[in-house]
Design a protein that fits this description.
Two copies of one chain form a homodimer. Chain A has nine helices and ten strands. Chain A is α/β, with parallel strands linked by helices and 283 residues long. The first copy, chain A, folds into two domains: 170 residues, 3-Layer(aba) Sandwich (Rossmann fold); 91 residues, Pantoate--beta-alanine Ligase, Chain: A,domain 2 (2-Layer Sandwich), CATH 3.30.1300. In chain A, helix 5 crosses helix 6 and helix 8 packs antiparallel against helix 9. Chain A is globular, with a radius of gyration of 19 Å. Chains A and B meet through strand 5, helix 5 and helix 6 of A and strand 5, helix 5 and helix 6 of B. Strand 5 of chain A pairs antiparallel with strand 5 of chain B, so a sheet runs across the interface.
């Protein structure tokens, strides 16, 4: 398999994808911010199951970072990333100006799905995500796009945007890929110090405990939530949320509610200075 | 030329356009709300200059109407409309649920361009326009889309959205088509009573006077504005605005400013109960 072609302009990316489509190939897209790990590689493999011509975008999207977030220090390693992208036809690695033309004003807003979970902690984040993903879809024109379930709310929002904007793309979620010890893979794990790294296990351990309890018949939202929260609170420098929410609408369940539909338990917390996410779906 | 095929689902519209594209035809789009008049017919003719396969959408888009606006009584006549659409391959006349799927949450927001002119008088209007146009583009996939310059701000916003979202569509503006006496054609002219109709001429007369003054060398924004405002205020039941604005950014010029760039003089007022728009570009 030849190495991917790396393009930096929307024009080149669109031309390559149009050519592939005109040859009858199905185009797949894996949008990433780079700093690729085995989780991303799994997304690429999933895309290849749905598409003949896989595009991986690598773009650290400024509009999804808040003013005090880690945009500047977000890990970047294009050369290393490209080496990991076996089976990818095109790597689309645009500059900011290629994605946000001079005078840019347009944002895609996702309404209520952005109000829950990470929404209140990251104002504007999901509008930034929805906007850049809409643009990537417009450039690449994928029939399938693959997103990781680790960013559960992002996946739900991208599905909503694709449905609502009548975009002809099948949005596919891929299960969380975990390290051997359970930690959900994330580019931000690179920030974890040797002291933080073992603490970070509390997220997956708490979620696995909640799943065990659920499998044993526990349906009280507050009890399931507390199983996760107790473990996480013990190690986290701060907890943004531990929430049991409806897996479709993302509306949180009250602690005294009973789980009757498919739910997600989602965690966001800081271990040291590193913000970590994890979640588990119970159904 | 065969009469247009009328389709009501995004699926059918997309299939027809994809088939045309696959045969190497260029697809053009004229988005309308129906109640077609000679202005619309001119847009269709313009689209046919850029495209081999012209689609006309007819959709009274609820999200661009405010709660106290004329959504319910907006004129509707699909059969009559279709008869006027000679040279159109497909009429896309969707139901509301075809354009706004169950659970719809997504809006395309256009930032500062929506803050001026009609924006403050029609909160949410331009987000509704930008959203539905983005959807129509997603369904039809036009290489060219034609909009009338009568809705000058709408045209500027659609251009901005297409540029910002990296949509592969050429947005073409078509000059205002006027009745013999100067009144800008509009579906809402049908609301004008016999008493209102002659009054409505004040808009175009005022704008033509301003153009004459501009052509004679007048560059004081306030003087140009007053020429229009005086005539309009005499007949209007209310004046939303008479504004001299930069033709690109739509930022209003102060009355004591001098016109040095391309500007638009835009009017919105009510004659009787009918809200009318008109504008003229000076350069």
């Amino acid at each position: 398999m030849p190495p991917p072609i790396v393009v930096t302009t929307a024009f080149e990316a669109r031309a390559a994808c149009t050519a592939a489509r005109n040859e009858g190939q199905r185009v797949g897209l894996v949008p990433t911010m780079g700093a690729l790990h085995d989780g991303h590689v799994a997304l690429v493999r999933e895309a290849a199951r749905h598409a003949d011509f896989v595009v991986c975008s690598i773009f650290v999207n400024p509009t999804q970072f808040g003013p005090h977030e880690d945009l500047a220090r977000y890990p970047r390693d294009l050369e290393g990333d490209v080496r990991k992208l076996e089976g990818v036809a095109v790597v689309f690695a645009p500059q900011v100006t290629a994605m946000y033309p001079v005078g840019d004003e347009t944002r895609v807003d996702v309404g209520r799905l952005a109000e829950h979970l990470c929404g209140p902690f990251r104002p504007g984040h999901f509008a930034g995500v929805a906007t850049v993903v809409t643009k990537l879809f417009a450039v690449v024109g994928p029939c399938t796009a693959v997103f990781g379930e680790k960013d559960f709310q992002q996946l739900a929002i991208v599905r909503r945007v694709a449905t609502d904007l009548l975009l002809p793309v099948n949005v596919v979620g891929h299960p969380i890929v975990r390290e051997a010890d359970g930690l959900a893979m994330s580019s931000r794990n690179a920030y974890l110090t040797p002291v933080d790294r073992p603490k970070a296990l509390a997220l997956s351990r708490g979620l696995f405990e909640a799943r065990r309890a659920f499998d044993d018949g526990e349906r009280r939202a507050g009890v399931l939530r507390a199983l996760v929260h107790t473990l996480v609170a013990r190690v986290a420098s701060s907890v943004d949320y531990v929430t049991v929410a409806d897996a479709e609408a993302l509306v949180p369940l009250a602690d005294d509610a009973t789980v009757t539909t498919r739910v997600v338990i989602a965690v966001a917390c800081r271990v040291g200075t590193t913000r970590l996410l994890d979640n588990i779906v119970l159904a």
